[in-house]
Amino acid sequence: MHVNIGTLLPRHAIYRPDKTAVIFKEQQFTYFQFNQRVNRIANALVTLGLQKGDKLATILPNCLEQLELFWAVAKLGVVVVPLSPMLRGTGLSRLLNDSDSVCVVTNADFAPELDKIRGDLNNITSDRFILIDGKLDGYANYGELTAVSSPTEPPTTPVHEEDAYNIIYSSGTTGLPKGIIHTHAIRAAYCTSFSTAYRITPESVILHTGSLVFNGAFLTLMPAMFLGSKYILHPYFDAAALIETVAQEKVTHIMMVPSQIIAMMHAPNFDPAKMQSLEMICSVGAPLHLEHKEELDRHLPGRFYELYGLTEGFVTILDKYDFPQKPGSVGSPPPLFEMRIVSAEGELCGPGKVGEIVGRGPITMPGYYKRPDLTANAIRDGWLFSGDLGYMDEDGFLYLVDRQKDLIISGGVNVYPRDIEELIVQHPAVRETAVFGIPDDKWGETPMATVILNEPGAISADELRDWVNERVEARYQKVTRIVIMEDFPRSVAGKTLKRIMRQPYWEDRGTEI
Q1: Which of 98, 305, 353, 386 has a CB 3.0–4.6 Å from the CB of 349, allowing a cystine?
Q2: Separation CA 23–CA 28 (nearest Å)
Q3: What DSSP element (H or E) covers 446?
Q4: In angstroms, rounded to a whole number, what is the distance separating the alpha carbons of residues 98 and 92?
């Protein structure tokens, strides 16, 4: 089938030419204007010799050019490889080589980091290093390339549903991150599945303030371009700016990671009266603790959604209408998705029994790029094995117990950090927490907590530890220590990086985590 998401933008340029497509900072473009901009960079890439199947890497902050490239490559059958600007050195060169990228687009701020590894890159010729801003030796300029390119549609390229659209790299907790392939059919399923699940319409106004290179961005970007909605992009997450944009633009849909939702509710200008236009506030990327869900629902009732999922391609969604009855759940599989809970012995688990979450659906990846061995382990008989632990209730709703990699085994007993975190955030002085296991001579490992307080000095670490340990349900849930921090290490998407906080304790034992 000729399923090509690159046909979406030209369609809106014809049938909704004057509708606002994209707003970024002071720049605003209609669908006709945005399509012309996308065509200019698409034709420039053709002039540079890029062909169907070639890989184009981007190392960019949120910017208009990143959005343009996402849609330009779709028209050409080129595969986009969005990389985090937090990458450096060998970590960066490995991914550029592993992805077989033949072109890279970056900005002037990042160019010095790229220059350090140029000699290590296998496939990128000198004329295919592109800067979106400024002029530097050894780089073509994005603006100059597009200025001399035609705004008409690029040469037609036959693109099929099985053709790759992007490679997104996992965070890579150990070793080389894995390149997750998404095809045009998968991204088309993002268009239809999430438009329906989030009740997005052509009249919706979507705001995205998180990182565009995080796969969660596609959960609203694809529906926006599918339906021809208004899409507003912020250069970076800023809670105060988010609130003002919602008020000014009458934003209807927004997707955030938990730390951003918490930051929004604690922003000095947070005022539910300014945000009444919102129809959806969706939490994605990590569990949002129940205490925070309920706080958000008190301020802005009837708007909360939660998505649990893997970039590899399975999700459940807690709908805003299901939230009141299932507040602790992460929802149910959307239409055309299926889910199982499987025991360590491979048996199906009944309601209430914890096992590994396994699923399949129209967004399941064909595999990891060039890693059939890892693919075979992750996808078995068409089912994606998540590595996460959960259970279903009698109604088939999923409850996430914890990430399998975060499980603490203390004295042979499974300890789930999330259970302890749900308790800690109930303390009025606590804003955020992260619980993980640290080595213990007697028990193997024991729980430790890091916390961010609402007000500095509101409570001491020892006082909070005592408060927690008096209230845990079992002795093995008692935390050994609590460390108060100003902020947590976070990924480019804003997700809390427990492994960074946990690592020093295990390195002392010579243990790799």
Answers
A1: 353
A2: 4
A3: strand 444-453
A4: 10
Query: At which residue do the structure tokens 């649990």 appear?
Result: 308
Those residues with Cβ within 8 angstroms of residue 281's Cβ, 6 or more apart along the chain or in another chain: 254, 256, 261, 296, 300, 303, 304, 305
Cβ atoms 220, 206 nearer than 8 A: yes
Contact 365/414 with Cβ under 8 angstroms? no
The edge-to-edge listing of strands for the beta sheet with 444-453 is 430-440, 444-453, 481-484
Residue among 320, 91, 309, 98 at smallest CA distance from 214: 309
| pLDDT one-digit tens code per residue, 224-255 | 999 999 999 999 999 999 999 999 999 999 99
411 torsion bin: left (phi>0), alpha (psi -120 to 50), beta (else): left
Cα(114)–Cα(401) distance, integer angstroms: 41
Q: Which tokens go with 89?
A: 């050195």
The answer to whether 77 touches 2, Cβ cutoff 8 Å, is no
Q: Report the predicted TM-score, pTM, of the whole model to 2 decimal places.
A: 0.89
CA distance 80 to 345: 39
The DSSP code sequence of 135-202 is --TT-EEHHHHHHTS-SSPPPP----TTSEEEEEE---SSSSPPEEEEEHHHHHHHHHHHHHHTT--T
| Segment 281-292, tens digit of pLDDT | 999 988 888 999
pLDDT tens for residues 458-482? 999 999 999 999 998 878 889 999 9
Report all structural domains of the chain as residue ranges with CATH numbers, in order of start: 5-14+29-186 (3.40.50.12780), 237-403 (3.40.50.12780), 407-507 (3.30.300.30)
Strand partners, 206: 231, 253
Judge contact between 275 and 261, C-beta under 8 A: no
Q: Say if residue 71 is exposed, middle or buried (CB neighbours under 10 Å; 0-12, 13-18, 19+).
A: buried
CA atoms within 13 A of residue 309's CA, in its CB half-sphere? 32
Structure tokens at 244: 């003002």
d(CA 448, CA 429): 18
Beta bridge mates, 413: 410
